[in-house]
Design goal:
It is built from seven helices and no strands. By secondary structure, the chain is an all-alpha fold. It has two domains: 89 residues, Hypothetical Protein Yqey, Chain: A, domain1; 50 residues, Arc Repressor Mutant, subunit A (Orthogonal Bundle). The model has no long low-confidence stretch (mean pLDDT 87).
Length: 150
C-alpha cells in the first residue's frame, strides 16, 4: 500500500475514533500533499510517490518543530502541547533516522575517501555527505557530527 493511501486510511480511522489531534495532523499533511500535487502541475486527485509524500511529511515535521520552538519562546505552553501531539503523529510515518554514531562512522569513512583535511572543505564535505544520507539522517545531526570531526 502506498504511503498516501495509508495516510488516508489513518484519517478515516481517526475520524471514527474521534481522535482530534491525530485528525488535525493528518488533515494538515493531506492539504500539503494536495498543494504539492498542484505545485507539480498534476491533478489534486493524483497520487504522490512515497518519496514525495515523505518529503512533504518532513516539511511538516520541520514546521511543527519550528512552531514548538516559537511557541515555547512566547510562553504558549497550550499551543506547544498541541504541536507536540501532531509532531508525534507525523513522525510515525517517517522511517527511523540514523544515530549520530552511525553518521560518524560513515562521515569518517567519507572524509578519508575524499581526502578532506581542513575545515575550509567542510561545506563540500557536508554537501557530499548529505547527498549520500538524504532521507536516512537528520541534517542537524549530520552538521553536528561533521563539526565535531574538524
Amino acid at each position: 500500500m502506498l504511503l498516501q493511501q495509508q495516510i488516508k486510511e489513518d484519517m478515516k480511522s481517526a475520524m471514527k475514533a474521534k481522535e482530534q489531534e491525530k485528525l488535525m495532523a493528518i488533515r494538515g499533511v493531506m492539504a500539503s500533499m494536495t498543494n504539492k500535487l498542484v505545485e507539480l502541475g498534476r491533478m489534486p486527485t493524483d497520487e504522490l510517490s512515497d518519496d514525495e509524500v515523505l518529503a512533504v511529511i518532513r516539511t511538516e515535521v520541520k514546521r511543527r518543530k519550528d512552531s514548538i520552538q516559537q511557541f515555547g519562546d512566547a510562553g504558549r505552553d497550550d499551543l506547544v502541547a498541541g504541536e507536540k501531539a501532531e509532531l508525534v503523529v507525523l513522525e510515525a510515518y517517517l522511517p527511523a533516522m540514523m544515530s549520530q554514531d552511525a553518521i560518524r562512522t560513515i562521515a569518517i569513512q567519507k572524509k578519508e575517501e575524499l581526502g578532506i583535511t581542513d575545515k575550509s572543505q567542510m561545506g563540500k564535505f557536508v554537501g557530499t555527505l548529505m547527498g549520500e544520507l538524504k532521507g536516512k539522517a537528520d541534517g542537524t545531526d549530520v552538521k553536528a557530527v561533521v563539526e565535531s570531526l574538524f
